[in-house]
Amino acid sequence: MSTDDFDLFVIGGGSGGVRAARMAAQRGLRVALAERLGHQGLGGTCVNVGCIPKKLYSYAAGYHEAFEEAPGFGWQIDTPPRFDWATLKANRAKEIARLNGVYAGLLKGAGVVQINGFARFTGPHQIAVDTTDETGHPVTQQHRARHVLIATGGTPSLPDIEGREHILDSNAMFDLDPFPQRLAIVGGGYIASEFASIFNGLGARVTLINRGELLLRGFDDDIRRFVGAEMAKTGIDLRMQTEVARIVRTATGLQLHFKDGGTLEADAVLYATGRKPLTQGLGLEHAGVALGAHGEVAVNGEHQTSAPHVYAVGDVTGRVQLTPVALGEAMVVVDRLCGPAPGKAARQMAYENIPTAVFTHPNIGTVGLTEAQARERHGEVTIFRSEFKSLRHTLSGRSERTLMKLVVDTKTDRVLGVHMVGAEAGEIVQGFAVALKAGATKAVFDSTIGIHPTAAEEFVTMREPLR
What we know:
The protein is α/β, with parallel strands linked by helices. Helix content is 29%, strand content 25%. It has 11 helices and 22 strands. α1 (15-26) links the parallel β1 and β2. The longest helix is centred in the first third of the chain and has 26 residues, at 85-110. The chain is globular and about 65 Å long.
């Protein structure tokens, strides 16, 4: 039984938890971090079954498009390229293991005590960790901490429908065996849309089933309509305003029965219909930590829970489910516990103008307000919109088009939103996010010299308003 005391005990080894633990330890606090490493490695969802492996698979899918485009640029590919799913899985696993090691090294270097086990509250300041001893036998360690940070993240949420046992969640998609020749994906958010593009590019026949009229609720409507049309052009079968009633296994696969009477047969079915905060079994009631209406850990502006010595960051709070947001929130907590770094002001987390990307094919990049949000908040807005075939596709033979859109406050000329569908949209919009953060006006955009020839220059050359 351990009686070690810590200034900060972090529950969860995802991006937010690791960042908080490492930085707090570097500031002189005694810090422990508990994570079940058999469950997944350090780095949480993002590193293990989210952002990183998904982007690697997106790159892999992109080669399919590149091979199709190559003849237009003079490259003769005499032997059809062959994709090997096992090689991609093995190389991805090797890279993720390397990243897990990097995270462990950073924590060790900072002096964080790492505990491989499941942590739970047994009292306001008491933490029990179910782990194993040196011989591999299960033991429970007892710890006391002055402050606790909950950073357990989220987990896929699956519906309770007939045939639920046949459903895959997004965590399972990276190591499927065998590769699904026919893949049905249920959902219309960024996870569903990204996996649809990925597996379509890797060679599966993909059907994307969404109960809504458009994909990607919450994004600008022009972006939603445009990316749906572009994804359909790549061969993805979009079944909009369609709901699954049940799933039945047959001799030849899985048969989806729709509420409108239709059916579809697939080799695998992915449900990407939402995620929920991972709080089960944490013993939050023993610490007086309250949950919100959707099961999230409720926090105030300082990321404190209803128990003032307990903090929470990242997806478990149900706010913005993005890795950079969790990292930013973690630094707010560190500054609150340790004081700001020398010469720096205490950090505050701002949730306006958070840029994001969706790695569909083509990509989406967006920052700021949608047109609908801007009209609701600011009244009169001016819209600038450009749609075109990129220079690359004048020779590639592909019909892919690019969409770029600016939302401007008519009264102040301030740019309120930047939205793009096209190659490297995330890379392009990241830079414009700085401009929005700085309060740039359309006049500033207009006075900026573009880099030619690039798609990005279109954002500083759009002169005629659409409406």
